[in-house]
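Page header: ASSEMBLY MODEL / two components / 824 residues total.
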Amino acid sequence: MRLFLDRVDRFLDVKLDVTPRAFILMAALLLLPTYVFPLWKMTLFAPQYQDGLRLNIYSWKLDGGNNGQDVREVNVLNHYIGMHDLDTAAFTEFKWIPFVVGALGLLLLRTAVLGHMGHLVDVVVLFFYFGLFSLWSFGFKLWVWGHDLAPGAAVKVPGFMPPLFGYRKIANFEVYSYPEMGTYAFAAVALLLLIALFVGWRQRTAAA
Amino acid sequence: MSSRFRWGILAAVVLVGLAVVAACAPSAPKGRRAAGQTSDLGVAAMKTYVAPGDLDTYYLFSSGGHSGQVYVYGVPSMRHISTIPVFTPYPATGYGFDDESRKMLGGLTWGDVHHPALSETGGDYDGRWLFVNEMNGRVARIDLRDFKTKQIFGPMPNVSGNHGSAFVTPNSEYSMLASRFSIPIPKGTVAPVEKYATDYKGVVAAVKIDPKTGEMSQGFEILMPPFDYDLGDAGKKVSDGWMFWTCYNSERATGKLEVTSAQRDRDYIAAIDWRAAEKAVAEGKGDLIGGVKVLDPKKVPGVVYLMPCGKSPHGVDVSPDGKWIIGSGKLQGVTTAFNFEKIQTAIRNKDFTGEEDGIPVLKYESIKDAEIPVGLGPLHTQFGTDGYAYTSLFVDSAIAKWKLGTWEVVDKVPMSYSIGHLCAAEGDTVSPDGNWLVGLNKLSHGRHLSVGPSQPESSQLVDVTEEKMKLVYDAFTEPEPHYAQMIKADKLHPIEVYPKEENRHPLAVWDVKDAGVTRSGNKVTVKVVEVRSTITPTSIELNQGDEVTVALTNIEQTTDELHGFGLLDYNINVVVDPGETKTITFKADKKGVFPYYCTNFCSALHQEMQGYLIVK
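Prediction written out in full:
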């Protein structure tokens, strides 16, 4: 047990080499595209919507295809079943997620500069916690919007769960939900950080 | 020979004769029986079949004649896609009911639309606007960005029976008008019909087109002898700057014109140097008649010349290179190709044979290149690729294909029946497409399921991609397809929604919270929002005698989400397109409760889209 803790201590004390630091710096830079590209996209097809309606979820806003018109169209359709409007202002996520991403970026830069394995472990843990919490939060909001329907709506439908990932048929709509560039950037960040950890681990082994 | 025997011989002869007659007379004319009238059915079906969901390759804008409208068809399917109301109210789109379109109609509820003209740049269709004339002396502009009538200009002063219109010049500088029924001018002047030859005046007119906005404004007019000006075409390329009009009744006759105006062997094509006319007007020449500058060719020589042409001509058409002007008498068996260079030479050499009211008449033999034996009753000519020309033959009920330069007639295809104009794909531009030709026929009898005495016209599609023309489709068009324009579909890029940011209507409201009634004395403004599936406000209270303006805004931004506003017992019916605002002003003179509702089916709860106007 002691041996293990010693090994952990030694591991956390490792001063990172240039290579893992470079990976960490790259990871920090890769957070920038998450501000530019959508994280997730939902595409809806129906007999009347052969070209599809598209909802683009960014870290800081909700946008739609056709110059944003698709969001309005989805809201017009959803008002018949009493769904809350999909609106950037209705989601607190669009406020805290960009802030947290910025904070993670600063922590990554700090790690790249100071080069402590301990810092790297901290930020990796935080990053995965943030990622999983965001996904849960996204899923939870989908659940709420699909279930908290106005009782006086023109069309009464039982609560439903829109797809978080993949395909689901909802009434006359085929709904597809898939990650987009922003999420791939996050995945790349995760990968780079894991590589940095691994390289750091190898470095420790080499030193010992 | 006994008389009985003679009677016997006679009876035998008569019987044989009857038998011969019975054996010889077929049940249908040759054209009807002849192979080749229709192409191979399978090929024709493949060529014209546009599968569900697929798109046509050409737009056909067909004049609606006295229906006052323009009809849009897809080619090659010949499907009727849309009706563009122009001079006649059209409840289907609410045209002529809302304030703006009602004002544009100016109190007239019909117009006789004849010759649609697509705007041109460099002699080619540019896909911006469609101009259409009507007989009351008006020209309308349809914006092809949204397929809506944007302006009705006129009536142009002095022009009477505006048939020879709305031909545009190669860079859409002008849309042209001409009098078919000469009258004493200015309008309101009275002279007995016996003084027709001297006191009645023909007029041709140029309406200026703003190159940026398409807005039409008064250009100038030219005083002409009292002939009946019929059809025109603007010169192009080498003949750019000239305008040609056919005219009949050069006899200056009155009364029974079918006889009195067909006495002389030749009528005229008027050749007008419109650039020279424009310059003369700019120099201050011309007299103000009826509020417009009118040039008198007697006082301003060098602007108008008359080209003798077979009697009672109809079409006059300039070849794509501008070198030839094709015109013919509609009772002739030939059409004449006039050479523009020869016309210029004849003018320079004063090669005249006479004059009409001071206008020189050019010598026919000096200006013609050829008389092409196209067939009986040549009316109108369009152009294809490789120098081919297509002339409609009213009397022969056929189209003749012939070649410019060699003047050889190479093919004929029968039309059912009595073809008037024809329209080839971009066939009156500097670069015709070939591919398709539509015969705009006057009679359709027997070609369709019977619909009683009031019969549709027929428009027939002809494949002109090969040496032999092939009739491939019969379409039955709304009255009255006088002329049409066929433009490649990819030249048009219409919007399908009016963008919210472009709506600057002062009474537009985009939020149901802003909808409602405001009152100032007995003047009431009702701002209404229409969106699936509610008309807000859902009830409107007024006092009897109020002057009401209802402003309807359709706040949808989705294609094809149109909403209507039908108000019962008040004869009100407006349709607003996505993003559009329209107003309708009326006096609430009837007391009671009047339902209003969405007339244009919009959604599953469309029926519920209703409200009440309560007039106390």
